TrEMBL record:
Family: Belongs to the YciI family.
Domain YCII-related: 9-100
Short name of one Pfam family: YCII
Transmembrane intervals: none
Protein name (Swiss-Prot/TrEMBL): YciI family protein
Length: 105
């Protein structure tokens, strides 16, 4: 999974076409799905403590950098996933976090 995040220190002050990146990786079979996320102002954090529901507006952490989208990638290995992420427009103005799925079986 690739989390698409903002960054307080972008390399460039422009946004390239993320739709083109998505279309190219969809066509190559490397991108399974992905989406932008609603603004952090619409986030809700849910916890249960001592049996009580704690519902807090906003993201779970105060941060200048927020997750704004995600992509599920199908890559042969981490090196390929890093190369796919390197080509994403947000790599220059944001940050991309890669994590593999854990097989719980």
């Amino acid at each position: 999974m690739m989390f698409v995040c903002t960054d307080s220190e972008p390399d460039e002050d422009r946004t390239d076409d993320c739709d083109t990146w998505a279309a190219e990786n969809d066509a190559a079979g490397r991108r399974v799905t992905g989406s932008a996320l609603a603004p952090v102002e619409e986030a809700v954090t849910v916890r249960v403590r001592a049996g009580e529901l704690l519902r807090t507006p906003g993201p779970f952490a105060e941060s200048k950098n927020v997750i704004v989208g995600f992509d599920i990638l199908e890559c042969a290995d981490l090196d390929e996933a890093v190369e796919v992420a390197r080509q994403h427009p947000m790599a220059r103005i944001g940050r991309l976090e890669l994590r593999h799925f854990v097989d719980l079986d």
